[in-house]
Amino acid sequence: MTEAPLPVEPALRRRPRLGYAMAASAATLWAVNGTVSKVILASGVSSLRLSQVRTTGAFAGLVLVLAAAAPVRLRARARELPYLALFGIAGLAFVQWLYFLSIHRMAIGIALLIQYLAPLFIALWARFGLRQRVRRRIWLALALALAGLALIVDKPTASSTTVSTAGVVFAFGAALTYALYILLAENEVGRRDAVSLLAWGFGFGALFFAAIAPWWTFPGHAVGVDHSLLGHLARWHLPVWALMAWMIVPGTIVPFFLLVSALRHLPATRVAIIAMLEPVVATAVAWAWLGEALGVAQLAGAAVVLAAIVLAQTAR
């Protein structure tokens, strides 16, 4: 008996402007989520447990949406499972875990700068792995974006986390897994819709975290406590579970859906460049919320990154 074919979505007309808007919105939501996650981590929740909650919560939310709206889209053939497992574990779970491991060992700005080497890795793969032509304007945009990010990052001081070899290795690992996530998603969005792809990916990521950190050892007492929002909002308190709910829905499900959907309209190289808005917006959010100073060099770096994004958009 042969397998029934899975439903295939009709081919979508590429709309680059929509793709740019989706990728930019995803970067903005991730930037805000960075500060929210920092508040949660300050409450005492570990980076591993935070990654576990984020991944498992996103999986549960996406499955509920699909189960209510279109359960048939959750179907997958057996031969698809290895690819979906690779996407979920190497592309979704590891990029979060490695990033958290890196910022435990060195300044968060340096870790973020290294992680955003991902667009360069994607461009290199397109040029030398796939033998595709990469326009010179894309290379210039990448160089400008990395230079801008370098300006945004404050120089480490005596009070900053020191740069360690392990931290650098973890940050490079985060960059590689971020690039892998985008490439795997780009390859799959033509065969599977964005929501079901993310549901399967987060599902395998949740299984991975459950295997290394069983749920029965989870510190449940830490979730119910009220915690200060820190910085300019220090007098306001919210329960940690409410902050986690924000992190899961507008901080994870929505931006990941937007980024994967953007790959239907734009190639991976451009989507990754647009995602570089994240550290720019994150710097502004940290200044407005946590009171972190925004120096002249950081403002100049933000302008350079924005110029790089505009340059990438004009590379037809």
Q: TL;DR?
A:
By secondary structure, this protein is mainly α. The chain is about 70% helix and about 0% strand.
What does this structure look like?
This protein is mostly helical and 316 residues long. 68% of the residues lie in helices and 2% in strands. The protein has helices at residues 16-42, 47-69, 81-103, 108-115, 118-129, 136-152, 165-188, 194-212, 240-262, 268-274, 277-290, 296-313; strands at 226-228, 237-239. The chain has a two-stranded antiparallel sheet with strand order 1-2. The termini are far apart. Mean pLDDT is 81; it is low at 1-11 and 157-161.
Topology:
Layout: H1 16-42, H2 47-69, H3 81-103, H4 108-115, H5 118-129, H6 136-152, H7 165-188, H8 194-212, E1 226-228, E2 237-239, H9 240-262, H10 268-274, H11 277-290, H12 296-313
Antiparallel strand pairs: 1-2
